[in-house]
Amino acid sequence: MLPNIQPLLDGSVQSKEMPSKTYSLSGGMVDGLEAVQQAVALALTIPRYQHLIYSWNYGSELDTLLGKPTALAVPEIKRLIGEALAQDDRILGVDDFSFTVEKNAVLCRFTVNTRFGSFSTQTEVTI
Questions:
Q1: Fewer beta carbons under 10 A from the terminal one: N or C of the chain?
Q2: Which of 104, 102, 96 has the alpha carbon at shortest distance from 122?
Q3: Rounded CA separation 57/86 (Å)
Q4: What does each of the 127 residues of the chain score in pLDDT, given as a tens digit?
Q5: 29-30 and 91-101 beta bridge pairing
Q6: 70-85 and 33-45 are packed helices; what angle lies between their axes, rounded to 10 degrees?
């Protein structure tokens, strides 16, 4: 989300926070924490650099872990999730990571701290 910057008469700049209202994937409109939850889910499922419709700053690079050993993949998942979500200025941080390693996948649970509150979510990364 980009700030709405309005110049004042004295040449200084005043920024105005824009609403985070967006269309829900299940229909209707969402705002606040629900909008951020949807943004997190989309950012983690869309591979970065693979679709021209999205900026190179959007999406995650979790798909680059395919074929990597578990010992390398687990710490990288934490870093890649943090980088993917840092692009959204509504998100203050990501913490409380826990990992469940399966045969060819890692289930990662974590907490996202936002301006609207915190929520727990999970993502599965194929390795």
A1: N
A2: 96
A3: 10
A4: 556 656 556 666 667 776 778 888 888 888 999 999 999 999 999 999 988 898 888 999 999 999 899 999 999 999 999 999 999 999 999 999 999 998 889 999 999 999 999 999 999 999 8
A5: unpaired
A6: 130
